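Our consortium's second objective concerns turning raw sequence data into structural hypotheses that experimental partners can test. To show how far this objective has progressed, the report includes one record in full. It was chosen at random from the queue rather than selected for favorable results. The single chain below, 428 residues long, was entered without modification.
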Amino acid sequence: MTKKNRILAAVLLTLAVLAAIAVGSSSGKKDVSIRRIPVDLNQTLTNEISDTSVLDGFDRHVKDYMTFWGLKGVSLSVMRNDSLLFSKGYGLADNKVPMKPGNILRMASVSKLITAVGIMILQERGQLTLKDQVFGPGGILDDSLFNAAIADSLYMKITVEDLLRHKGGFSKKGGDPMFATRSLMIQNRWKEVPTKEQLTVVQLSRPLQFEPGTWQDYSNYGYLALSMVIEKVTGMPYEDFIQENVLYPSGCVNFKIAGNYYADKYPDEVRYFVQKDDEPVDEFNNSGRKVTRSYGGNNVTGLSGAGAWVGSTPELALLVASIDGKPEVPDIISKESVDAMTEYFDPETFSLGWNDTKPTGEWTRTGTFAGTSALVKYFPDGECWVFIANTSTYKGPGLAKFTTELFDKLRASYSSKFPLRNLFYGED
């Protein structure tokens, strides 16, 4: 870590603490933990700190799972009641480079949870409401270019909440515009990769598949639209707003928007691998080249708030600690917002940012694309397990089911054996 980066990290951490103090004071919470400055997790955590000699067999279970699914590298962190108990890397972060807790990885759709938190913060500040109209005259994204492209009057019924819950009326049947860059370039004879504005015009020119709010269909575009809502309301680039108002106040200083190629990777970022039988694909920018799917197969950067964040598993656990309603780590959102994000309606209704929240208090967030498989699982007993692999498998999103089974097995055998400590604050 360079001197410049160390100074920057120290400044950001100080700002994070000051923001946390402000949040804690305004919400009337005790300021026991907020007086303490959290460490820069990515720089201080090592695999040796989470030595598993007291967890006989733990590493073997994880490594067996990796072998079975062909995972090159895995980062795993475990939190309980806002205390980080365990954080360790397994396998390889890159060719011949071991995985460490501080490595940052693409987290795919786990990014949607981050975007949802940003929306809740804007609602708390009175800058928008979940019931606000998004498109058309009078909507947040009221723009002459967009309004002229609207092909279906139902677009005027889409609310911020509809986008958060995947109830905007979009359907993957017409092709997901977020993963169809090359096709759109060919169809529209575009020479350059389409901007988010061009993707929005494409989407608005398509009829909706159902009336907004009446059904759900998972939509990556909906979260790109939410990223644009954040930019329109705040006048800031999406990444800057999220870092300054969601991540830094949580103590998370190393989240960044991903690049598309290995050459774009950050110093502590991993290499992304695909399964052995995955054939090269056409590059997303219609260059005519064949590329490895995880490096140029899709416009990862262009996913923005739908799937572009990279970060480490311990910092991701810290973010969850900052939005879970528990007092040990001060929350950056109000109890009302925590309750709204985790409210259970029925099996057919997505939660706000989370994939699924059960009435028992179990919350789930998954993320998958080429070279990445991520799972955040928050359990009713206050434990949160965060897993990100730098390898994709033929199961795609279905791998989360098997990772959940791994969590259940490990929890049953080892939850009571974790050392009582809090690595968020350097306690060992």
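The partners drew two points from this record. Residues 1-37 have pLDDT under 50 and may be disordered. The radius of gyration is 21 Å. Both points have been shared with the crystallography group to help prioritize constructs.
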